[in-house]
Amino acid sequence: MGRIDKSIRIILALIFATLYYAGVISGVFGIIILILAAIFVLTSFIGFCPLYAPFKINTCSLKGKK
Fold this sequence. Notes:
about 70 residues
């Protein structure tokens, strides 16, 4: 997972958490969005997204590799 991908995930997680705790999003949808935010943070910190593997997506820069 590339640096830009990680940054976007963290920013989205912060936005989702802010919307939930501000009361803009609530109920079942709010809980789902909060869980999604937690998944974004977790995958950003470990640097791996399980959904990328089956689709062969790679957002990591390949500097120095040929």
